[in-house]
Design brief:
Length: about 190
């Protein structure tokens, strides 16, 4: 957290320590559901340790992975534009996790107390949105093999942390196709 407070704010070291002392850090066991699809989002997270899967159950009853979050990533579902304010996704811990937990009901109080945190959040949101937008455009324009290569390049450790069937869902292929892609790429 100090890394992000330093990077995105001008808080002094003392202010950073005070803020850090007020931050809620919680541990969650592997398999913990942080948010169910259809529930109203009340918290946001920042991962200090662990891996979280974001997925939705589609009309056919299949789980479709849309993201995996790991260390130093913020986990927030943006749904303020939605009439119902319910989440279209489930968030589950794929590993034991240590998370900074933010309560969305009191976030404005925190921003009023520490205005620099709002600026930090806004800057991080802009970076995240730009990255997601670029990743989505690349995903749409690429073949499954290119998606896998990109994943290997951008997030190489993820492949060892996520079950193959979930990784295949994320890449938009079957587990069997992912096996073939991995075999083909390893032979290059």
């Amino acid at each position: 957290m100090f890394k992000y407070l330093t990077k995105y704010t001008s808080f002094s070291e003392e202010e950073q320590r005070v803020i850090a002392s007020e931050i809620r850090v919680e541990e969650y066991k592997k398999g913990t559901i942080l948010l169910w699809q259809g529930d109203v989002l009340t918290k946001c997270y920042f991962i200090l340790k662990g891996c979280i899967r974001q997925y939705a159950v589609n009309a056919l009853g299949r789980e479709v992975a849309s993201n995996f979050y790991t260390e130093e990533q913020a986990v927030v579902i943006y749904n303020e534009h939605s009439e119902s304010k319910t989440s279209k996704y489930t968030l589950t811990c794929l590993e034991d996790c240590v998370l900074v937990v933010g309560d969305l009901a009191t976030i404005n109080d925190t921003y009023n107390k520490y205005p620099g945190l709002k600026s930090m959040t806004n800057r991080m949101t802009v970076e995240i949105f730009g990255s997601v937008q670029e990743d989505f455009a690349n995903f749409i324009a690429s073949s499954p093999e290119e998606r896998f290569k990109s994943l290997l390049h951008k997030r190489p450790g993820l492949i060892d942390r996520v079950p193959q069937h979930q990784l295949a869902s994320f890449l938009g292929v079957t587990p069997e196709s992912l096996s073939r892609i991995k075999k083909w790429i390893s032979s290059l």
